[in-house]
Description:
Elements lengths: L8 H11 L2 H8 L6 H11 L2 E2 L14 E3 L2 E3 L3 E3 L12 H11 L4 E3 L7 H6 L5 E5 L5 H13 L5 E4 L9 H6 L16 H5 L4 H8 L8 H7 L5 E6 L2 H9 L4 E4 L13 H12 L5 E4 L5 H9 L4 E4 L1 H32 L13 E2 L7
Parallel strand pairs: 4-11, 5-6, 6-7, 7-8, 8-9, 9-10, 10-11
Antiparallel strand pairs: 1-12, 2-3
The protein binds ligand FNR.
Amino acid sequence: IMAVGPVNVNEFQELAREALPKMHYDFYAGGAEDQHTLKENVEAFRRITIQPRILVDVSRIDLSTTVLGYNISAPIMIAPTALHKLAHPEGEVATARAAAACKTIMVLSFTSSCTVEEVSSSCNAVRFFQLYVYKRRDIAAVLVQRAEKNGYKAIVLTADTPRLGRREADIRNKMVAPRLKNLEGLLSIEAAFDNGSNLEAYANETMDASLSWKDIEWLRSITNMPILIKGILTREDAIKAAEVGIAGIVVSNHGARQLDYTPATITVLEEVVHAVGGRVPVLFDGGVRRGTDVFKALALGAQAVLIGRPVIYGLAAKGEYGVRRVIQMLKDELELTMALCGCPSVKDITRSRVRTQRERLP
Length: 362
Ligand code: FNR
């Protein structure tokens, strides 16, 4: 890897492992309990084949698309992930600059290590803000208002975290909950620290486990921004989400960090897309490591994918440049896949270009 630099996104993971203290690397890389879903998120992509068409003019490939009306250079966005300063001293500011350079959308995590304001003043990328709802509802209201005031374009409500999943590496490493920059002056978490707290205790103390569908109305009442719901895995919830009139959904199992033995996200994407029936856009995340993975998700109905861990690995290895490289590698791989598959533009990536395991002869 050292001689020529990484040639694919997975090699950034090795560089990140070398660059980071074990506790922080494990925090980023780990999943819940047996980490079954963590492996499956990646493995399930390998069971889908691509069915290329030949003799199509692919001399020009157009990767561009739109999400909620915003033009982006490729259907590859940056997922909300916590605490980028543990990966690199510039934290989310570097990630956001990379998003701007790649002309894509960054979803800033609620649990970021740079503030909403720091990130917006340092780049002109289109930004969405990911929201967790704490028992203290006023905190959500304040953060949403700050996001709106600072030019964020949408709220991504993460709905799969009434409590924190059990991540055993963090328990073993005694990973502590760092003070959250966005919440300075809003929430005293000293209590959580005093009783020798870890991430799990902190989250369970703060998170509002009573949050439910009826609260979407409340969220709508405190903002004019469009609201997306992240963490949908079933047709039932997809239908529900479309019914309550949200602006989009994100098929996600939180990178396998919440409930272990949820299905790999790519295996439920199509079911969700059918349930939604085109009423709202469907975004996707989980296990995307190759341009072919992006292609498969698009063929199964995703409007765009979000990238979690590889972005952090790029950031840990090489800062803003590393994040740019990760996004660029995925874009280049997607472009090549489209050329070799006879798809000159994103709209040509139709359902018949892939086969799932079920559709193949035994
Ligand atoms: C996450 N994810 C996440 N999601 C969210 O809504 N808010 C958050 O603060 C975080 N934090 C977070 C931290 C770390 C270290 C990881 C790996 C993930 C989940 C994230 O948005 C996304 O769903 C997954 O990361 C996608 O899977 P991949 O790309 O990591 O396989």
